Amino acid sequence: MTLVQLRVFCAVVEQGSFRAAARTLDIAQSTLTQAIQGLEGELGVTLLNRSHQGISLTPIGERFLVRANAILRDCELASQDVMQSRGEEEGNITLGVTSEPLAELLLPVVKRFVERFPRVKVHVTSGYTKMLIERIRDGRLDFALAPLAPQVSDVDLSIERLYRSVPSVIARKGHPKAHVTSIRDLVDCEWVSIRPAGIVGGAENRLISLFNTENLGAPKIVLTAESLLETLHIVCESDYLTIEPRVLSELTLFSGALTSIPIREAFDPRDVCLVARRSAPFTLATQELVSMLVSYSRLVHGPAARNTAG
C-alpha cells in the first residue's frame, strides 16, 4: 500500500467519479483505475461500488476512508512540522468550532496568531459537536472548540476543558415574557431548536430535561432548524424561544434584536473544550495557536474546574 494509492482513493471518493478525480489529480484515468484496483487487490476487499450512476463506498470502504484521510493528514502535518522546526513558518491549520467558542475564544485570539504566523493558513469549519468530533477522528480537523457534557471522555481523544458554558433562554427584544424569572412562566411558550437532519439531542434535550425536572410536561418545540443563523432569525421575527449560550445575544450582530430571559433554573451543564486526536501531535504552529487559546480562556474565565488529560 502506498501514499499514492491512498491519495487516489480519497480523491475518487471526494470527487464522486474516476474521471473527475483523474482531472483533479492531473493523471490519466487508466493510471487512477489501476491504482484503485491494486489497492483493492492488496487488501483483498472491494472498497468502491461501481455503477452507471457513479461510485459509492462499500461498508469496508467507509471505514478505510477514515483511516486513509487520517494517514494523509498526518503525513502533511509531519512535513509541515519539519519545515516549522527549521524556522520556515508555513503550513495550514484546519480547526472546527461551534458558535459560542467562535465568539468567546477564536475571534479574540486569531488576529494575533495571524500576525505572528502570516504564512500559516487557518481554515475554520463550523458545525455541531458530533460532526466536528467525527472530522477530528478521520483527520480532517486538527482540533475543535466545542461544548461537551462534563462526563464525556473518549480514549482516542484528548479533551481539555476550558470553561463552563452558560446556556440561556433567548427571545426577541420586546417579547411579552422577556422579564420573567422562572421556566414555569414559559410553560405555554413555543420553542425553536437547532437540530441538523438525522441528529437527536443538543439544546432540545436540555430543554426537555429541565421541563421534566420541574414536572412541567413536554415543551412545545414547534420548529427545528439546521443552523444557528436560521434559528436566531426565526426568534428575531417571532415570539418563539430558543436555548443558546447567553453570549450570542450579546454579539453586535444580534444585540439590538435579541435578549436573554433571566430564569433562575439551571440547564444541564456543558463545558467548552479543546478536542483533538490523542495520537496526532500538533505542529509547532498549531501548538502555538492552541496555547494562545488556552491562555486566553484562563485569562477571561479562570482555570477550568476539571480537565481530562490528553
Automatic annotation (TrEMBL):
Domain HTH lysR-type: 1-58
Keyword check for Mitochondrion: no
SUPFAM superfamilies registered for this protein in UniProt: Periplasmic binding protein-like II, Winged helix' DNA-binding domain
Domain of life: Bacteria
Record-linked PROSITE patterns: HTH_LYSR (PS50931)
Cited Pfam families: HTH_1, LysR_substrate
Keywords (A to Z) from UniProt: DNA-binding, Transcription, Transcription regulation
Family: Belongs to the LysR transcriptional regulatory family.
Protein's name according to its UniProt entry: LysR family transcriptional regulator
Organism per entry: Pandoraea capi
